[in-house]
Design brief:
Elements (H helix, E strand, L loop, with lengths): L1 H17 L13 E6 L25 E4 L4 E2 L4 E7 L3 E9 L20 E7 L7 E6 L5 E6 L18 E6 L3 E9 L11 E10 L4 E4 L16 E5 L10 E14 L7 E16 L2 E7 L27 H4 L3 H4 L25 E12 L2 E10 L7 E13 L3 E14 L3 E18 L5 E12 L3 E13 L3 E10 L14 E4 L4 E4 L2 E12 L7 E14 L5 E14 L4 E13 L14 E13 L6 E12 L2 E14 L3 E13 L6 E14 L4 E10 L4 E13 L2 E11 L8 E11 L2 E2 L1
Parallel strand pairs: 1-4, 1-13
Antiparallel strand pairs: 2-3, 2-12, 4-5, 5-10, 6-7, 6-11, 7-8, 9-10, 11-12, 11-13, 14-15, 14-39, 14-40, 15-16, 16-17, 17-18, 18-19, 19-20, 20-21, 21-22, 22-23, 23-24, 24-27, 25-26, 27-28, 28-29, 29-30, 30-31, 31-32, 32-33, 33-34, 34-35, 35-36, 36-37, 37-38, 38-39
Organism: Imperialibacter roseus
Protein name: DUF5916 domain-containing protein
Length: 741
C-alpha cells in the first residue's frame, strides 16, 4: 500500500502539470478530400488514363513528418480518389524520386523500411480503429487492421489478408500507384458520408517521411488521431454477401527419431477456414482442423533470465482483430495470450479440432470479440475448451472502456467435462487518451478463479506522456500469489527451485518509471535525434522485500543516414530466493547480489545493399561476470533477395562451484523472391543452449488472390556433439484456395 500511495502522489503531480499542456493535434478541419463516383470504368494498371482521374479534387502539399515535422515538404505527392458500385479507387503520383530503396518483393514485408505510398482509412470515424493499405514502387502489397496498437510499431503483425488490387508504374522522376479496394473488404457504416482518411509516403533515399495532414514526429505515420475528412457525394453501400472459404489439403512425410519406435509416417490432413461478413462491420471467422505447418518458425533467443521468454503469436486464425483480445495488461503481465492455446503444459503443440471467432463493430462506438476453441485430447492430456468474450466501448473521442471473461475447461469425449480442471479470468480496464494522443491514463482490475487456489487479483495503474520532446511513463501493478491465468503470460509468477526441481507460484508487485527527452538538432546536421531515457523498475516479493531492481540509461543517437548508436549503462540488484541453474555446475544459492553492466549497440545505414549490426555487453552478472557479443550481417540484392548471417555469444563465468557457460546462437537466413508471387525462404539456427540445430525451408507460390501452394522442409539435429543425431525431419506440401461466395 505504501508503494501505491507514492505512485498516486506522483500521478497527481503529473496530472496537474498536464492541465496546461499544449495540444499538438491542431485544427484538421481544412483537410478535406471530395470523392465523386467514377464516370468511366477504371482499369487498375498504374497508367491513370481514365477521365475519372482528371478530377480537380486532389490531396497534395504534404507535410514532412520525419525527421522534422511542422514543415511543408517540397517533394511532390498528388492523390486522387473515386469509386464505383464495387470498389474504392486510389491514385497517387509520387514525384521527385532520387533512387528507389525496396527491401523485398515479399508481401507484408518492409513497408516502412522501403520507399512506399500508403493510405489510412477510418470508415466509422472512431479515431481508434481503421485500415492501412500500402505498396512499394515494385507493387509489394501490405495491408493491416489498425487498432489501439497502431501507436506502437512493434505490436503490428501485418497478419490481416484480404482481397484488394494494385498496380505501379515507374518513371525516371516518379512512380504512379493505382489501387482498387473492394467495398466487401472494408467494414463501414453505410450511413456515413464522411470517413477519416490520411495518406503517407516513405522517401528512403532522403530518409524522410511525409503525410497529408500535419503529424507530430513523436507519432507513427498511421496514427488514427490525425486523419482528414473524405467527403462522399453519396454514402457508399455494400452490395451482396461477403463470404470467403479457404479449404486446404496438406500431405507429408515425418520422422521422429526420439520416439520409442522411430519410423517414417505419411499423413494427409484436410481442413479449412471461412470468413463471413454478418454485417458491414462484424465478421465471423471459422476454422476446422487448422494447419499451422507453414507459419514462420520462431527466431530463437538465448535465455539468461530466471523466467520464460515471450515469443510472438504467428498463427493466422488468432491474429485478425487481435488487439481486441491481447491489449489487456502490460507486456510482462498479459491475462490473454493466445499463443497459450493449442499447447500442452510443456508448451508442445496440440492439435485443434475447430475454432470460431466473432469480432468487429456492433455500433460505431462498440466492438465485441468472441473466441471459442477446442483442442484434441491425447494419451497424456485431455482436450481443452477455450472461450473468450471481450467488449471495447469507445468513450469521448479516443478513450476506451474494455472488459473480458475467459474460461479454460478440460474435456474428453469419454469422460465429458472435468469439473476440477479449469481456469477462469475476468477483468475491466479503462484507458483515457486525449485527442492529440499525448496523455494516456489507464487503470485495470482483474480476477482469477482456479481449483485449490481460490480467487486471485491483479491491479494495474499507470500514466503516460508522449510529447515531441518529453516523454514519461509510470506504471504500478500488484499480482497476488493466488492469481492464475491459464490463457495468459505472466513469466514471473512461476519461480523454479533447482534443488527441489519444482515450481513455486508467487505473486509480485512492480513499480516502473520511464522518463525521456528527445533533442533534434537543426536542419543540416548528420544527427537526426538524441534520445535519452532513464528507466527504473522495482519488483517486490509478496512480503514487500525487493526481488529485482534495475536502474538504467538508454541513450540513442539516430543519424540522418538511418544508422543508430545506443549506449546502455545498468545498475541491478537481485535478491535470489530460490536456487537457480545458470550453468551445468552447482545451482547458484539464494542471496543478495548487486551488479552493473554496460551495453553498446550500433546499426549501420539500412538503405545500403550491405548493412550490419553489432552489440557488445560487458560487466557483472549476479556474483560473476558476463560478456556478450552480437554481430548481424545483411546483404540485399534489390529487390529480389535478402541474405543475413547472425552470431551471438554469451560467456558467463561464476565463481566456484557454480561453474561457467559459453552459449552460442548462430543463424542464417536467405529470402529469394522470384516475383511478387513466388518466394523461397530458408532459415538455419544453431543454438547450444537448446542443443539444437534447425533447418526450415519454405517455398510459397501465391498462384491466385489469397491462394497458395507451400512446400516446407524442416530438420532438427542435436548440437552436442555437433550434428551427431537427427531428432526429427519433415517435408510437407500444402495447397489452399480462396472461394468468394
Amino acid at each position: 500500500m505504501r508503494h501505491l500511495t507514492l505512485f498516486l502522489i506522483v500521478v497527481a503531480i503529473i496530472s496537474i502539470s498536464s492541465l496546461s499542456a499544449r495540444q499538438l493535434q491542431g485544427d484538421l478541419s481544412s483537410y478535406q478530400l471530395q470523392i465523386m463516383r467514377s464516370t468511366d470504368p477504371i482499369k487498375v494498371d498504374g497508367m491513370l488514363g481514365e477521365d475519372s482521374w482528371s478530377t480537380p479534387n486532389v490531396a497534395s502539399d504534404f507535410w514532412q513528418q520525419y525527421p522534422k515535422d511542422n514543415i511543408k515538404t517540397d517533394v511532390r505527392t498528388e492523390v486522387r480518389m473515386t469509386y464505383d458500385a464495387d470498389n474504392l479507387y486510389i491514385a497517387a503520383i509520387c514525384y521527385d524520386v532520387e533512387d528507389y530503396v525496396v527491401q523485398t518483393l515479399k508481401r507484408d514485408n518492409g513497408l516502412f523500411t522501403s520507399d512506399a505510398f500508403g493510405i489510412i482509412i477510418d470508415p466509422v470515424n472512431s479515431n481508434t480503429n481503421g485500415f492501412l493499405f500500402g505498396v512499394s514502387p515494385y507493387n509489394v502489397q501490405t495491408e493491416e487492421l489498425l487498432g489501439p496498437n497502431a501507436t506502437q510499431p512493434d505490436r503490428m503483425t501485418f497478419s490481416w489478408d484480404n482481397r484488394w488490387y494494385s498496380a505501379v508504374t515507374r518513371h525516371p522522376d516518379r512512380y504512379v500507384v493505382e489501387m482498387a479496394i473492394p467495398f466487401k473488404t472494408l467494414r463501414f457504416n453505410s450511413q456515413n458520408s464522411t470517413w477519416g482518411v490520411n495518406f503517407f509516403r516513405n522517401d528512403m533515399s532522403r530518409n524522410q517521411k511525409y503525410s497529408w495532414t500535419p503529424l507530430p514526429v513523436n507519432f507513427e505515420l498511421y496514427d488514427l488521431g490525425y486523419t482528414g475528412d473524405l467527403k462522399w457525394d453519396i454514402a457508399p453501400t455494400k452490395n451482396g454477401t461477403n463470404i470467403s472459404v479457404l479449404p486446404y489439403v496438406t500431405g507429408g512425410v515425418t520422422r521422429d527419431n526420439e520416439a520409442e519406435s522411430p519410423r517414417s509416417e505419411t499423413s494427409v490432413r484436410v481442413g479449412g477456414d471461412a470468413k463471413i461478413a454478418l454485417t458491414s462491420s462484424l465478421n465471423l471467422d471459422l476454422t476446422v482442423n487448422p494447419d499451422f505447418s507453414t507459419v514462420d518458425v520462431d527466431v530463437q533467443q538465448t535465455n539468461l533470465t530466471r523466467f520464460n521468454l515471450r515469443f510472438p503469436e504467428k498463427r493466422g486464425f488468432f491474429l485478425e482483430n487481435n488487439d481486441l483480445f491481447t491489449e489487456f495488461g502490460p507486456n510482462d503481465a498479459k491475462p490473454i495470450f493466445t499463443r497459450r492455446m493449442g499447447l500442452d503444459m510443456d508448451n508442445r503443440p496440440v492439435a485443434i479440432n475447430y475454432g470460431a471467432r466473432l469480432s468487429g463493430n456492433v455500433t460505431p462506438n462498440t466492438r465485441i470479440g468472441l473466441l471459442h476453441l477446442q483442442t484434441k485430447s491425447n494419451d497424456t492430456v485431455p482436450g481443452q475448451n477455450y472461450s473468450i468474450a471481450v467488449f471495447n466501448q469507445r468513450i469521448w473521442s479516443r478513450s476506451v472502456l474494455r472488459g473480458y471473461v475467459t474460461n479454460r475447461q478440460a474435456y474428453t469425449q469419454d469422460d465429458g467435462w472435468h469439473a476440477n480442471n479449469y481456469g477462469r479470468n475476468t477483468g475491466l480496464e479503462f484507458n483515457y487518451l486525449n485527442n492529440s494522443g499525448t496523455w494516456n491514463y489507464f487503470a485495470a482490475y482483474h480476477l482469477s478463479a482456479k481449483p485449490d487456489a481460490g480467487y486471485g487479483s491483479f491491479t494495474n495503474l499507470g500514466i503516460e506522456y508522449a510529447g515531441r520532446k518529453w516523454k514519461a511513463r509510470i506504471n504500478y501493478w500488484n499480482i497476488s500469489s493466488d492469481y492464475f491465468a491459464d490463457m495468459g503470460f505472466f513469466p514471473r509468477l512461476e519461480n523454479y527451485d533447482a534443488v527441489r526441481d519444482t515450481l513455486i507460484h508467487l505473486g509480485w508487485e512492480r513499480i516502473y518509471g520511464r522518463f525521456g527527452y528527445v533533442f533534434r538538432p537543426a536542419k543540416g546536421s548528420k544527427i537526426v535525434a538524441h534520445d535519452i531515457e532513464l528507466r527504473t523498475y522495482n519488483d517486490l516479493y509478496p512480503d514487500g522485500t525487493i526481488s529485482d531492481l534495475e536502474n538504467r540509461i538508454d541513450y540513442k543517437i539516430k543519424f540522418q543516414n538511418t544508422a543508430e548508436l545506443q549506449l546502455q549503462p545498468q545498475l541491478l540488484k537481485t535478491n535470489l530466493r530460490f536456487p537457480t541453474d545458470f550453468t551445468d555446475a552447482a545451482p547458484l544459492m539464494p542471496g543478495s547480489f548487486d551488479y552493473g553492466r554496460f551495453n553498446v549497440t550500433y546499426q549501420s545505414d539500412a538503405r545500403k545493399l550491405f548493412s550490419w549490426q553489432t552489440e557488445v555487453g560487458v560487466g557483472q552478472y549476479y556474483n560473476g561476470n558476463l560478456t556478450r557479443y552480437l554481430l548481424q550481417l545483411n546483404y540485399r540484392r534489390q529487390p529480389w533477395g535478402t541474405f543475413s548471417v547472425g552470431w551471438e555469444q554469451n560467456n558467463l563465468k561464476l565463481p566456484d562451484p557454480y561453474g561457467e557457460s559459453n552459449l552460442r546462437l548462430v543463424n542464417a537466413r536467405a529470402e529469394v523472391n522470384f516475383s511478387t508471387k513466388v518466394f523461397w525462404t530458408t532459415f538455419l539456427q544453431y543454438n547450444t543452449q537448446r542443443e539444437n540445430f534447425n533447418v526450415n525451408s519454405r517455398l510459397q507460390w501465391r498462384y491466385s488472390t489469397m491462394s497458395d501452394i507451400f512446400l516446407v522442409y524442416s530438420d532438427n539435429y542435436t548440437t552436442s556433439p555437433f550434428l551427431q543425431y537427427n531428432r526429427n525431419r519433415a517435408i510437407l506440401l500444402k495447397l489452399n484456395y480462396m472461394f468468394n461466395l
